[in-house]
TrEMBL record:
Protein name (database record): phosphogluconate dehydrogenase (NADP(+)-dependent, decarboxylating)
Functional pathway: Carbohydrate degradation; pentose phosphate pathway; D-ribulose 5-phosphate from D-glucose 6-phosphate (oxidative stage): step 3/3
Keywords: Gluconate utilization, Oxidoreductase, Pentose shunt
Tree of life domain: Eukaryota
EC numbers on record: 1.1.1.44
Domain 6-phosphogluconate dehydrogenase C-terminal: start-end pairs: 166-420
GO-annotated molecular function: NADP binding; phosphogluconate dehydrogenase (decarboxylating) activity
GO biological process, one term: pentose-phosphate shunt
Family: Belongs to the 6-phosphogluconate dehydrogenase family.
């Protein structure tokens, strides 16, 4: 190693190893460290095999920290919780004022804020930067979500820009269960979708999945995969935080879908109960227009990610989508845009496509197929576009039973009405 390295990475599980190799491959010299030294040797060996990438391994924290150029920047990719605090403690023994630690785990933001304050007292910078995309994403194009000290972000902006690289399941369910598409047809449909505005890593791998035969038996592997999704907590934390200030029905519905998928045994028993009653058989005898269904499902491929966030997600392996470019442009046109729904381009397209969206949801409902994300998104749209909602009745009820007061549409201020008295008098 000639001179200090550009950056350090501590924590060499699968994600850490792949991100370190990705950074090195982009031409940045990187030092790596792991408490279990065999992981260090393993990563160094991988770097050699991939063309002598500029990656250097260290077995002790002191030499690791001292090998990095000042101000030092170290990415941590360790398990969330106590291991993060332990790693911070270990590294901070050798860090100097102005140095920076970046937590690459999907940590709860309040823990990140706590650590940022504690580090600031030591004259150190701390930055949260969740890394998403799994093993493949970390190696070839992770989605990275930096948040915290802007000064810390500027330390690594050049690296991030080079390295950054549930509704799909519902569409699959409708196409397969109602449209009766075979895996071969699904493979073709998703392959075609990936050539247009729905181009993304998830659509691409979905097409791949439908084409893979089962190596342990007859048929396709996707049909043998257990329909029971795991939970990592990211979605739960997102919904909890959103509940404090914004509506996030699509994300909440995705979370609900995950919870329900985990109840496999209960669902199997419930299916026995309802199957005999004919629930979901409404369209069994009805011919479904496959071509129209595919077109309608494709039209539902719009997204609601906001503003500048699109820039960080744009290169991410999971969400590499043409649509994110368009989202970014919408906020370039109007940085104060309240909602993508009211952007001139997006509103025009939603108006044109809403009929297909509604047809897919209606068809799914008639077929007894759950499309929580699609239907919740539609409900959000239909709520957001109305200038008056029935919440006036709710406010009147609250004032009636709890004297919570209410506002009027024609006069400013808060009002309270003795609803009970007036109602009682009218009955006399």
């Amino acid at each position: 190693m000639v001179g200090p390295t550009r950056i350090g990475l501590a924590g060499l599980a699968v994600m850490g190893q792949n991100l370190a190799l990705n950074i090195a491959e982009k031409g940045f010299t990187i030092s790596v460290y792991n408490r279990t030294t065999s992981k260090v040797d393993e990563t160094v060996e991988s770097a050699k095999k991939e063309g002598n990438l500029p990656l250097y391994g260290f077995h002790d924290p002191k030499s690791f920290v001292q090998s990095i150029q000042k101000p030092r920047v170290i990415i941590m990719l360790v398990k969330v919780g106590p291991p993060v605090d332990q790693t911070i403690k270990t590294l901070s023994n050798y860090l100097e004022k102005g140095d920076c630690i970046i937590d690459g785990g999907n940590e709860w933001y309040k823990n990140t804020e706590r650590r940022e304050k504690a580090m600031a007292k030591l004259g150190l910078l701390y930055h949260g930067m969740g890394v998403s995309g799994g093993e493949e994403g970390a190696r070839n194009g992770p989605s990275m979500m930096p948040g915290g000290s802007f000064q810390a972000f500027k330390y690594i902006e050049d690296i991030l820009l080079k390295v950054a690289a549930q509704l799909i399941a519902e569409a699959y369910d409708v196409l397969k269960s109602t449209g009766k598409l075979s895996n071969e047809e699904l493979h073709h449909v998703f392959s075609e979708w990936n050539k247009g505005e729905l181009l993304s890593f998830l659509v691409e791998i979905t097409a791949d999945i439908f084409g893979i035969k089962d190596d342990k038996g007859e048929g396709y592997l996707v049909d043998k995969v257990l329909d029971k999704t795991g939970m990592k907590g990211t979605g739960k934390r997102t919904v909890q935080q959103a509940a404090e200030s914004v509506a996030a029905p699509t994300i909440a519905s995705s979370l609900d879908s995950r919870f329900l998928s985990g109840l496999k045994e209960e669902r199997v028993e419930a299916a026995k109960v309802f199957k005999s009653s004919g629930v979901g058989d409404i369209l069994t005898e009805q011919e479904v227009d496959k071509k129209k269904l595919i077109e309608d499902s494709a039209e539902k491929g719009w997204d609601l990610k906001l503003g500048e966030l699109a820039r960080f997600w744009k290169g991410g392996c999971i969400n590499l989508a043409i649509l994110l470019d368009r989202i970014k442009k919408a906020y370039d046109r109007n940085p104060e845009l309240a909602n993508l729904l009211v952007d001139t381009e997006f509103s025009k397209e939603i108006i044109e496509r809403q009929h297909g969206w509604r047809r897919v949801v209606c068809l799914a409902i008639k077929s007894g197929i759950s499309v929580l994300g699609m239907s919740s998104s539609l409900a959000y749209f239909d709520t957001y576009r109305r200038d008056r909602l029935p919440a006036n009745l709710v406010q009147a009820q609250r004032d009636y039973f709890g004297a919570h007061t209410y506002e009027r549409t024609d006069i400013p201020g808060s009002f309270h009405t003795e609803w009970f008295k007036i109602a009682k008098q009218s009955k006399i």
